[in-house]
Write a structure and sequence with these properties.
The chain has 225 residues and is of the alpha/beta class. 20% of the residues lie in helices and 37% in strands. The longest helix has 15 residues. The chain is globular, with a radius of gyration of 20 Å. The two termini are 36 Å apart. 29% of the residues are buried.
């Protein structure tokens, strides 16, 4: 087959269509606007003082698995998070250490331990509840920092230009499949250090039938699904 002069993007679209049709499905997403999903389980980010209190002075995190964003990793260390009605054990600590401790749980987790955190962007702790965090060397009570993470898309600045969106903008995405639909209120996080990936929590993944590695489509401004 002579492919000389064939537009690469058009070729990708044709091949994608043929593969999906061969598998007995239908093409539901625009290949040019696809974004990979990362389903985020409950986890914790620690600052230096909290790390010292839970694991000992000068202790360090030990990377176990690299994450989708450059420099981010799941560590071997875990903690227990406790609220008024119960505890969540073995919450993974994500590294590297941050400027402020933050606990990210799902709405289902929150009901289990009796905490009512708001849906917030990472780092926005004003008016959020606290909890007790326990580690092998001690425990600490934080006054705030427990959130249900607002679903968001990490993207490089070049991706933002390609999609026609800006940092901090709220967008909509289309989810394919038997439990698909439209996700509103998805915040864009654009940075030259980011790679393209949308983060949702386990509640959202279960509701839409999504798992890590699946794809959704970023809808154009004003576009109807």
């Amino acid at each position: 087959m002579n492919l000389q002069g064939v537009d690469r993007n058009e070729l990708v679209k044709v091949v994608t269509k043929l593969v999906v049709e061969k598998l007995g499905g239908e093409v539901e997403l625009d290949p040019d606007r696809q974004i990979k999903i990362g389903v985020s389980n409950h986890h914790v980010h620690l600052d230096r003082p909290t790390m010292d209190a839970l694991f000992g002075a000068g202790s360090e995190l030990h990377p176990m698995k690299l994450l989708g964003q450059p420099g981010q990793y799941a560590s071997a260390e875990t903690v227990t998070v406790t609220g008024p009605r119960g505890s969540l054990k073995r919450l993974r600590i994500l590294g590297p250490l941050r400027a402020k401790t933050q606990v990210e749980i799902s709405a289902t987790d929150a009901r289990t331990i009796g905490i009512n955190p708001p849906v917030r962007e990472s780092g926005h702790h004003e008016g959020t509840p606290g909890c007790k965090i326990s580690g092998p060397k001690g425990e600490i009570e934080i006054k705030d920092g427990v959130i249900v993470a607002l679903r968001h898309i990490h993207m490089h600045d070049d991706d933002a230009k390609r999609f026609g969106v800006t940092n901090g903008e709220n967008v909509r995405v289309k989810v394919p499949g038997p439990r698909g639909g439209i996700m509103d209120n998805v915040v864009v996080r654009s940075n030259p250090k980011y790679t393209l990936e949308m983060h949702i929590d386990t509640d959202e993944g279960n509701a839409f039938g999504l798992k890590t590695g699946d794809f959704v489509e970023l809808l154009k401004s004003g576009e109807k699904a």
